[in-house]
Amino acid sequence: MSPEHVRALLEAVRSGAVGLDEAMRELRELPFRSLGFAHADTHRHMRTGFTEVILGTGKTAAQIATLLVELGRDGGCVMATRVLPSVAAEILVAVPQARYLDAGRIVASGPAPAPTRGRGTIAVLSAGTADIPVAEEAAITAELDGNVVERIFDVGVAGLHRLLAHREKIEQAEVLVVVAGMDGVLPSVVAGLCSRPVIAVPTSIGYGASLGGIAALLTMLNSCASGVAVVNIDNGFGAGRMASLLNRVRA
Fold first, then answer.
1. CA distance 250 to 186
2. Interatomic CA distance for residues 105 and 56, integer angstroms
3. In 3-state terms, what secondary structure has residue 151?
4. What domains are there in the chain, each with its CATH number?
5. How confident is residue 8, by pLDDT bands cut at 50, 70 and 90?
6. What does the alpha-carbon distance between residue 36 and residue 88 come to, in Å, rounded to a whole number?
7. Which of 23, 36, 214, 235 has the largest count of CB atoms under 10 Å?
8. What is the pLDDT of residues 135-164, one digit of tens each?
9. Is the dihedral of CA 172, 175, 181, 185 positive or negative?
């Protein structure tokens, strides 16, 4: 339940359009709604400004569809992450108004907010093409939270000239999300080129000694460049949400 929905309900009670008992019934489920297999946190938007996000991993298509409907009752935008294409196909049958954003493996339902909540652009960079799914998860998350996002993909340090070709766009961004697997060096290089906060996202992309992203994670945690903060391995959602908060226009 969004702040706008609560305000509209209270205004309706004040005007007499909605009775007190009806309003009480609606507010009774404000903290959460029990679905048997889950407790949908219908109050999270009120507390944090962002609706509860559904992690698709480990959930059935029916469970994800039910959560999308319940969390989106007030007409806001709701998203589920890490959804496989086969699972998404089943969800879209159950929730026809939803859409599958396959590049980021996200199912979204409800209208995306206008890109007016941020004071500037969020740039999302990926070191390689294989890192794009995680980068897209970050980019889509930021977009669904009302930000303008610039994508700059496949600019890893193995060909540093590719990154430098986009230096003007990078310097104009308000916040940078930098996604890299393998050696995980790209966030340090980017942070050394500009005066913007860098959110580093290690991915599990790499060969044996990358240890499923641990090597990239340790590289980013040990960055010699200032202004670098690190999220967990493959956590594109967390990076996109943090970038959105840093970019947020305060009332």
1. 31
2. 9
3. strand
4. 3-109 (no CATH), 121-247 (3.40.50.1970)
5. confident
6. 22
7. 235
8. 999 999 999 989 999 999 999 988 889 999
9. positive
For 176, residues 6+ apart whose C-beta sits below 8 A from its C-beta are: 122, 123, 124, 125, 170, 190, 194, 196, 197, 198, 199, 243
Q: What is the pLDDT of residues 223-237, one digit of tens each?
A: 999 999 999 999 999
Taking the C-alpha atoms of residue 32 and residue 137, their distance in angstroms, rounded to an integer, is: 26
Cα(223)–Cα(230) distance, rounded to whole angstroms? 10
Cβ neighbours, 10 Å, residue 126: 29
Query: CB within 8 A of 45, min separation 6: which ones?
Result: 1, 2, 3, 51, 52, 76
Return d(Cα 240, Cα 230) in angstroms, integer: 12
Burial 108-121 (b: 16+ CB within 10 A, else e): bbbeeeeeebbeeb
DSSP result, 76-116: --EEEES--HHHHHHHHHH-TT-EEETTTTEEEESPPPPTT
Residues in Cβ contact with 14 at an 8 Å cutoff, skipping those fewer than 6 apart: none
User: Residue 28: exposed, middle, or buried by beta-carbon count in 10 A (0-12, 13-18, 19+)?
Assistant: exposed
Q: Which helix (H) or strand (E) holds 180?
A: strand 175-180
Q: Which residue has the tokens 């979204």?
A: 108
- The mean per-residue pLDDT over the stretch 102-120 comes to 88
Can you tell me which residue has the tokens 């929905």? 5
Give the closest residue to 139 by CA, choosing from 150, 153, 155: 150
pLDDT score of 111: 83
The reported pLDDT for the residue numbered 41 is 62
